[in-house]
Amino acid sequence: MKKVIIIEDFCIACYNCEVACVATHSRSEDPVKAYKREGLRGRSNAVVEVESPVAFSVMCRHCRHPWCMDACISGAIQRLDNGIVYLDEGRCVGCWGCVVGCPYGAAHPNLTVKDKHAFKCDLCIDRLEIGLKPACVEACPNRALIYDETMEKRAEVHTP
Amino acid sequence: MLFKKPQIQYYPYIVQRDDYRCVRCLGCVEQCSYDATFYDEELDMLWNKHEACVGCKRCEAMCPTDALKIIPNPSRPYEHQSWKWDLVMDAYLQANTGSIIITGIGNDKPYRVSFDHLLLDACQVTNPSIDPLREPMELRTFLGRKVQKIELAEAEGGNITLKTRLAPQLQLETPIMFSAMSYGAINLNFQESMARAAVRLGTYWNTGEGGLHKRLYPYVNSGIVQVASGRFGVSRDYLKVAAAAEIKIGQGAKPGIGGHLPGEKVNPDIAETRMIPPGSDAISPAPHHDIYSIEDLRQLIYAIKETTRYEKPVFVKIAAVHNVAAIASGIARAGADVIVIDGFRGGTGAAPKSVRDHIGIPVEVAIAAVDRRLRAEGIRNEVSIVATGGIRSSADVIKIIALGADAIYIATAAMLAVGCTLCQTCNTGRCAWGITTNDPRLARRQNPDIASEQLYNLVRGWSHEMKEMLGAMGINSIESLKGNRLRLRSIGLTEKESEILGVLPAGE
Fold first, then answer.
1. How far is B22 from chain A (nearest CA, A)?
2. Domain that holds residue B186
3. In terms of CB atoms within 10 Å, which of B41, B80, B146, B413 comes out highest?
4. What ipTM was assigned to the predicted interfaces of this complex?
């Protein structure tokens, strides 16, 4: 399965992945409107972690055995046939089990609206369907995020 | 507000932020290596310290919502025709610091660029032009000493063999090489990018005076290693593994001036490559302390030739200065295979501004003078001439070759290909584009995978354009253009200037 591979050596902490993620998951698909009118600030599924000089963007690793799915009490998190670990926000009851369970900190609690739910990367499932790469990969100016097959071979980013 | 000297307030750039478009992603804060941008959590606002901005436009380039523009500060005092604003600012700066003004990149003063006053010829009716997309067009260039004549011998069985022993040659698929920029002045990612691009293009890259890093060993067959006055990283193996060795006497941006990599920039990796203790100042003296004459230079050239068993060409690089032709003649007689002439618009990692802006002569004039002098003395075939320092486009390459160069080096153009915006702060070691810095946070901004592609594209594009221009002139090989000043005409130059360049005025 193709996943987003994080090349830590080349992340420059520009946050373009975060903005692209928010924009692509918004109604308007425009970054300014998404942040300013749709209240999606802080809703990026990819989060850039910076401890200078090291930086990298973290998003769902779409584990083969997702611990977040084990932790989910409402069945909102499922592993789709194509390997994508999908969180159905409508079915989420906001117990934050996945938030605690994810070893990468890639599931986030949405605290900004009344109906509380968790959110996480869906690998831009809509974009993949029309043959595009995930938005964060496309936005990365330094090829620190690549969308590739070789994920399973990389021991350091793979859950057993 | 803390007190600051009033002159600091006359900063050159303003960071203009469209606050509505700004989504507070904080990318600009992280990107700015000059601490000109900061986030105010209390107000949820991004602010700028305009006086810290150097105008590198990194934040503008990386802003995902196009909320930033770096604009020149419109506030100017009365525009004085003699006291140009940069002179006023320099006087202010020196009044505050009392030190030499150090800067980077090349001469930015409005001296006449002769390239812009030269026009190329084309074929019409009486001789056919050539379409390089349909007919063969050769940019292949050989650098090295050429023999006066060759003798052939017929072996048994009718095979023809060469009796004359040829001097070592470098084969370039395009007459554009990457100039010397040392590890220390630039970082390894960018150096590796140049090395990879050179290998892919079939041309050469230059290590600069900072030695050869282990990571670049795979590319050394296309590498030219430099021997400069500091002798950093020079060893027998260093000379033997490379394609050629280059003795650096001078640099166009700072003729007569040495180099100084401050100790704080000499990290363990640079120290190992340069073969000096970590943290010690890497000082390249102004002269080579063992070269005080052409005879001394000859000794070093032949020492290198002995070391490399006469299998590698030896380059000698000098800055273009007033009597460059006589110096070049001496270098040719000292046994150099290639003379590199670096014009006064050449770049530098750090040089005193007074030296950068006022010493030396333009490369186009220097090449014309050197080519004419060597021809007059009948020794032009004994050396190849490489021009560098101020070559900005494919047309410049064609023009300088028509003026007598064999090939050129690019460095500033190579940096532009990977993002440089000519902000002239290379000397600070805080290059926000990650080119002239070894800060691990900044150096990672050059991904060799991307940068080598950009460099490859630039040289490939130039080469295509050169083929088109050669085709228009009805020439199918760059060899036929070398020193072919009849294909040039000058426009807007004085008679004397045209005479020095050896070209006729337009219309004649």
1. 7
2. 141-148+168-505
3. B413
4. 0.90
Residue to test with chain A: of B30, B193, B438, B454, most A Cβ within 10 A: B30
Q: What is the mean pLDDT of chain B?
A: 94
Q: What is the mean pLDDT of residues B399-417?
A: 97
- Residue at B135 is within a domain: no
**8 Å CB contact of A143 and B25:** no
B24/A35 Cβ within 8 A: yes
Residues of chain A scoring pLDDT < 70: 150-160
Nearest-by-CA chain B residue for A36 = B23
Q: How confident is the model at residue B37 (pLDDT cuts 50, 70, 90)?
A: very high
Among B27, B441, B449, the residue with its CB nearest the CB of A53 is B441
Q: Which residues span the domain enclosing A90? A: 64-120
B30 vs A13: CB contact, 8 Å cut-off? yes
Domain check: are A86 and A100 in the same one? yes
Q: Tell me the average pLDDT across B159-180.
A: 94
List all residues 6 or more positions away from B488 whose beta carbon is below 8 Å from its beta carbon: B118, B119, B120, B121, B399, B402, B403, B501, B503, B504
Paired tokens of B254: 């700072």
Contact B25 A53 (CB under 8 A): no
Distance between A10 CA and the closest CA of chain B, angstroms = 5
pLDDT at B2: 67
Instruction: Name B206's bridge partners.
Output: B224
